[in-house]
Amino acid sequence: MHPPRLAGRRPRLPAEVSSASCAALDGLDPTALGVTYWFEAPNEGERRPQSVLVKGRLVEPEQNQPKEPTVFEVVTTVHDVREVNVTPLTGPEGGAAQRAAAKRPGLVRGVASGRTGFGMLVDALAPGVWAGSWSAFVLLGFVLGLTLQAVLAGVLGVPWPPLTAVTLVAGVLGLVGAKGYYLVTHPVERRRSIRSPGMSVQGFVIVALGTLTVGALLLRMPVGAVLDVTAPGLFLGMTVGRLGCLFAGCCVGRPTASRWGVWSSDRHLGVRRIPVQIMESSLCSVLAALSAVAVVTSHAAGSGLVLIVGFAAYLVGRQLLFPMRAVARVTRNGRMVTLVVASAVLATGLVVMWSA
Fold this sequence. Notes:
The protein has 356 residues and is of the alpha+beta class. The chain has helices at 96-102, 119-124, 133-153, 160-185, 187-192, 201-218, 223-248, 276-297, 305-321, 334-355; strands at 15-17, 31-32, 35-40, 50-57, 71-78, 83-86, 117-118, 262-265, 270-273. Strand 8 (262-265) and strand 9 (270-273) form a beta hairpin.
């Protein structure tokens, strides 16, 4: 078996249990059992769905058996893919799980057992998820963006020490806004637990830019210039941060059989997917370069127009990428409304910048 590079590790057995033992986290809810089943589909022949049926039961001493049912099963169907990993629950050797797998040609039987652990830690140990990668990439992106902002501040006559201080505060509050926006737009996750992983970049941008505007007014810095010199750094930070999503198993694309697909995981299913994180990162890198050039060369720089045009362009690109994501949008018409409004703002802003 040849696992993709992004899987992060080489499987030793078809079925494996994630080791999520941590004394400090024992007993915390929610708990989960992280089990991974690996298999390779044929590289040739007609594509067809592949169903994986796995069964498991709670293994306890007879005197400690709970009254609730202890036997359960999970069925996962994968369409039009060549390499897949799922997270099933398997039973002991010789049990119903082995007999069910034996009836399905082409799938290797696997048996694994293990203990439950803290759910968020188990998720972070899934194949294709590099623990700590999201935080590392976001922090690196923030530092690089802050540096670029300080370099460009002198172009428009903005003092960089107070600007950097305000931006640090804006970044912290932006994380709170990112979490709040995610919970508002994902009611299912809100009902599960406020501690469930997930943030929204739009929430971060809204709160961070709002904080930056208020800070600029309080410190008597030109608001338009502050926003414009922030734009390139913002997009640079998003360029790097989006790559963290790829390694952390979030914001994933839809499964695809295309040769242009990239194997990645959503913490549940590892499969070749449309690389939306890489595509959005590329979009942000282009916007970072163009907005930096605009700050240095455009006569409209300092009015806030560079940020407005850049963010409108980002929203247009983001809405076009949404249909390629695995998770559908919550609102029915929100994407189209955002696309129309952002396109109008982008066109108007470009005309104004050109005529400046």
